[in-house]
Amino acid sequence: MTLKINFKARIVILIFEDMKKLLYLIIPIALIGCDDGDLILEDLDFEGATVQACEIPDDGDTSDYLFYMINDTETISLQLSTIDDILSSEATHGPYSLITNDLEYRKLSDAAGSDYFCNDIPPSSPTTLQTFIGEDGDVYITTSIEEEDNDGISAVDEGIATLQDTDMDGLPDYIDEDDDGDNVLTINEGINLTDLSLSQDTDGDGTPDYLDNDDDGDGIPTIQEDLNRDLSPANDRLLVGTDLQPYYLINSIEMASPAIDTFRPHEYSSTANLDISIEDLTATSDSREIIIAFYEFGTFVRTVTTTITPNFVP
């Protein structure tokens, strides 16, 4: 029997069906037809499939991971144990040997459902037609982290290079959804995402409102113009003419009493991208063996939202 293999790999080195008969192939992709009517493994590159994982606690307090992909009647999974902080430490982690960790490819009788993995009791269907087990190889995980306060302003424009912290609350602007610490979210302070220099500047002092803790220039900090003390100055309004306008954007002597001494809770997201690859992979099924010099398993993406209340800075 001959296997038809199409790995997402830089080089497929060899495929053989009998331990005594060895056939070497050194080509980018090996496509070998099956002429005896037996089972064909059609596609192992999982192009377009999403790398998923069984539940990972938000605090990352785990050392056991199960990454997997499903492509109709094919699945591939990687069970990995490590004490390395692969979720939040930007680095290339590994190598993790497949001698002590598990890689498994399955060809199934029918399409695998979304609940095929991560169950305490393995599903009874679909049935497995053939399994390749990773016997050897080194797994590497390259982790990159992207943090974002979701205010629409790029991290570069928010001074990520210098960890700019306009309100000195301990959160750099690029993960601070209230850059100036006035309890009005940056995204609600008239930012012009096309040209930040054209953002709203109520008092005309040259500092846009989203970076100005006294937006109307009346000498009263915006955070203290929160008369109902609900940590949202935007909903404290005064009738000016026929319009209701927030106190913090008009000259007014009204102040919160007692004074506000708390920042509103802040949220920012952290996205971890885990690029998973395997070097010198050897996978076997009965007497069949596949050896791949470099296999790109795929990228697992995990986003976690963090809520934090910064220490108050008067």
Q: How would you describe this structure to a colleague?
A:
- By secondary structure, the chain is mainly β.
- 0% of the residues lie in helices and 35% in strands.
- The chain is built from no helices and 12 strands.
- Strands 1, 2, 3, 4, 5, 6, 7, 8, 11 and 12 form a 10-stranded antiparallel sheet that branches. Strands 9-10 form a two-stranded antiparallel ribbon.
- The N and C termini lie far apart (77 Å).
| Class of secondary structure makeup | mainly beta
Q: SSE order in H/E notation?
A: EEEEEEEEEEEE
The unreliable regions are: 1-43
Q: In whole angstroms, how far apart are the ends?
A: 77 Å
Which word captures the global form?
Answer: elongated
Characterize the main sheet. Answer: 10 strands, antiparallel
Task: Quickly count the helices.
Answer: 0
Fraction in beta strands: 35-45%
Kindly state the number of beta strands.
12
Rg estimate, integer Å: 28 Å
Proportion in helices: under 10%
Mean pLDDT: 86
Biased composition (Acidic residues): 202-218
Protein name: Calcium-binding protein
Organism: Nonlabens ulvanivorans
Region (Disordered): 196-221
